[in-house]
Amino acid sequence: MKSKAQKSLQAVGKRGRGAAPSEALYRSPAERRAEGKRLRDAVPRAGHSGWKPPRKRRDPVEVVLAANEGRLLDLVPIRHGRMMKSPFDFYRGTAAIMAADLAHTPSSGLRVQACGDAHLSNFGAFATPERNVIFDVNDLDETLPAPWEWDVKRLTASVVLAGRHIQLKQSESAAAARAAVRSYREHMAEYAFMKALEVWYDKIDLERLMSHVDNKKAQARLQQRVEKARERSVAEHDFPKLAEQLGSTPLIKDNPPLIFHLPEMKEEMESGNIPEAWARYHESLPEHIRVLFDRFHLCDMAMKVVGVGSVGTMCLIALYMAGDDDPLFLQIKEAMASVLEPYAGKSLHSNHGQRVVEGQRLMQSASDSFLGWTQGRRGRHFYVRQLRDMKLSPIIEGFDAEILQGYAEACGWALARAHARSGDAAMISGYMGSSVIFDEAICDFAVDYADQAERDHKAFVKAVREGRVEAVVES
Asked: Which of 18, 176, 306, 320 has a CA 20 to 30 Å removed from the CA of 160?
């Protein structure tokens, strides 16, 4: 019998064009590229241009409120407060709104393992198990097989909003979005003619990334941040910041409302719910990682509010110790159904934590060693990873026009590499072609959709001021 992972991979192919790769006759990259080119007859590249909301588009405020179902009600106002800050922050927390909108846009019919929330803040640098620093997509809570264009459109619209957020000229924001899609198209063309294993082993390490950064100031800033991250260790930096020694057992420090202990945690531990959940996580790990994980013992768990879209879901951190000066922090994030499911089809995985983990392993060139999944007695699904491992996220407020454009190009490259691992790079490349027609069309969409996000944000802020939505703005 085939595993769920194999069925998921086959679903990507079957929902694209024809049979799964293992069932199809061999076709050369040139033949597949030509087939991709023929898709333009049904879906012209210029048809991706612009955005007009459908006549019966759902009220964006209703979509936001509906997404709060199952969240911790005490934390929902914090989520709303973070979304109020700017149209860019609102966009980060409203993947559900755009998923519904994207379902009304043209699609070539080709599918990949999609990120589902490919805005530029969900890309960044992190350490591989071999301790190399790579650049990749790093948040895959919404991952699901879906049209590849959806990720490209979400990325480019986020670039325009980021440019407006840092008060760039409209032409500069549009140029950065155009650079992102051009980078995606040009790198997909390279992957189209690479051998399958070459695509699979490809990664964007620090040296390759630096070689594509022309801005000396950006190079220096990136190098400085990476060196600082490399100098940090869990024992010397994270442990003193997040934990304190009370008696013989170290505990996670409370820092409400962002880090706090749930009153029912002790009861959950004594009832066996937490030990059972950790046992399921243990079984999800590869055997050699289980041996490593068994060296650690659980000391404490606490809630930790993170991000924008995740606020209100069950996000926890766990402190494990293998010795007096040997800590391990794990992040446990609740995984709900992907926002893409109503439009792209249900996941083949019954556990959404597993959906995230399998999608992450498929899209990333390297994933965290402790990546795994579990489920609680109350039916909540979770995935687990290290809390921090040389993770570097973009600081958009420090960007200028040149840095934003360079960063957008890096995101486009990383997205193309991720899509090429599961999709047919030659067909996707053949559809986009070598001209700028697709670039210009997606850029036009990105500008128009950024306008839509700003209108939605304005409606959301109005709803807060009218008392329809409760929000807490953090100081």
From this structure: 306
